[in-house]
Specification:
Blueprint: E1 2-6, H1 28-39, E2 44-48, H2 59-74, E3 78-82, E4 102-104, E5 111-116, E6 122-127, E7 151-157, H3 170-174, E8 180-184, E9 190-193, E10 196-198, E11 214-219, E12 224-229, E13 234-242, H4 248-263, E14 269-277, H5 283-292, H6 294-303, E15 309-317, E16 322-324, H7 328-336, H8 340-344, H9 351-356, H10 361-378, E17 379-381
Parallel strand pairs: 1-2, 2-3, 3-4, 6-7, 7-8, 8-10, 13-14, 14-15, 16-17
Antiparallel strand pairs: 1-11, 5-6, 9-10, 11-12
Helix pairs in contact: 1-2, 4-6, 7-10
Length: 386
């Protein structure tokens, strides 16, 4: 038996923090997932939540999604689908009914579907969906114990120990004696136990998401095999360059060589965020050229002859980092205490914001994460006596 485990597709999510032109089509990842399922002749596909980035995906994004589901139907590939905290299911949101090959969980109660495979084997798949942006209690106890089917798989969108996203423990999952747990919500590919996996997001959408993946899972009565497929056409890289140069011209050459060395082994578009360390007396001139965009333009000209596509998102010089008199631990505490609800309260009656749910808790949590990420990039931290 073979299947694909996909989670956190966020099909309608834009690349974040990017102003570059001629960006790759981010939705191509869904076409590539469908193609990978067909090429590998899988029995079924599992979509473990957050297929969309919002609970009201646009009609055209939905059409793209449904077109892919129909291609899988043509190849007799079943799909088991749940909704996560971002794309929590609402009534009257889908532009059409799901194809017959799709088993979609439409409520928060755990449902189990049993598939009969062409091999004659049977597989039971259990999962639940979100109907709001959070679930504060574990759903693990609602999953049935292992069925009489040849295989049993659990699909769970949540976080180990989290307070807001269906918190669970490994003990709870292991007690079910399933063959595989297909997890969603964490965007980094992560193995929690021999048979418990976060596949990660198939495509990174911001500079924090430097890892991506889709799991190709093979199951027999005696063996579990998990292969991570990297289908992303875009990757994100943080590149630190400690410069040895004493002059501007040699520094530019050094920067260019570092970028090429990182890029030559990849065929994807690379979004680079670059930190320059040990910059010499030419720092002031380099900063001026950075601020004007000339350095980025020059480096793009140097690398345009490559098959590799390079987008330079940002440059920072080590000298531009300022020390803040607090620890990272204290920073995390301060950010956690931010009451963003009060800040956005004056906007809450705006119809556009209401219709698009722009100030839901999931969005506010992401804003907090972005604040912390930017502060860590721009400042150094130290302990102080309090």
């Amino acid at each position: 038996m073979k299947f694909l485990h996909i989670a956190d597709l966020h099909l309608d999510r834009a690349f974040e923090g990017i102003t570059a032109e001629n960006l790759p089509d981010r939705t191509i990842i869904w076409h590539d997932i469908v193609a990978a399922a067909i090429e590998n002749q899988v029995d079924f596909v599992i979509l473990a939540g957050d297929n969309f980035h919002q609970s009201r995906p646009s009609f055209m994004i939905q059409k793209l999604f449904f077109d892919g589901l129909k291609k899988l139907e043509e190849k007799s590939i079943a799909v088991f689908l749940i909704f996560g905290n971002h794309d929590y299911i609402r009534k009257n949101q889908m532009i059409e009914a799901f194809p017959r090959n799709v088993y979609a969980v439409m409520g928060e109660a755990v449902e189990t579907t049993t598939l009969s495979l062409t091999s004659g084997e049977t597989v039971a798949i259990s999962g639940f969906s979100y109907q709001q942006p959070w679930i504060n209690e574990s759903k693990a106890s609602e999953f049935p114990v292992r069925s009489t089917a040849d295989f049993h798989i659990g699909v769970y969108h949540g976080e180990l120990g989290s307070a807001n996203y269906a918190p669970f423990t490994l003990t709870e999952l292991n007690e079910k004696n399933y063959d595989y747990w297909a997890l969603g919500h964490i965007h980094v590919p992560t193995q929690l136990a021999d048979n418990i996996y976060y596949s990660g997001t198939p495509l990174g959408h911001n500079r924090k998401e430097t890892s991506s993946g889709v799991n190709l899972v093979k199951l027999t009565k005696t063996e579990l095999s998990v292969e991570a497929l990297n289908l992303a056409k875009v990757i994100w890289r943080d590149l630190i360059i400690p410069l040895q140069s004493t002059a501007l011209d040699s520094a530019i050459l050094e920067i260019n060589q570092a970028i090429l060395a990182e890029a030559q082994s990849n065929t994807q578009t690379i979004f680079f965020s670059i930190l320059l360390e040990e910059v010499g007396d030419y720092a002031e001139e380099l900063v001026r050229r950075l601020q004007s965009g000339e350095l980025q333009e020059l480096l793009s000209a140097y690398t345009k002859q490559l098959v590799v596509k390079i987008k330079i998102l940002s440059f920072k010089l080590e000298q531009s980092r300022t020390e803040l008199p607090l620890s990272l631990e204290r920073l995390e505490h301060l950010i956690a205490q931010l009451d963003l609800n009060q800040l956005v309260l004056p906007l809450s009656n705006n119809k556009i914001i209401q219709d698009n749910h722009l100030i839901e808790d999931t969005m506010l949590s992401e804003i907090k994460e972005e604040i912390g990420q930017q502060l860590r990039l721009d400042f150094d931290f130290k302990e102080v006596d309090e």
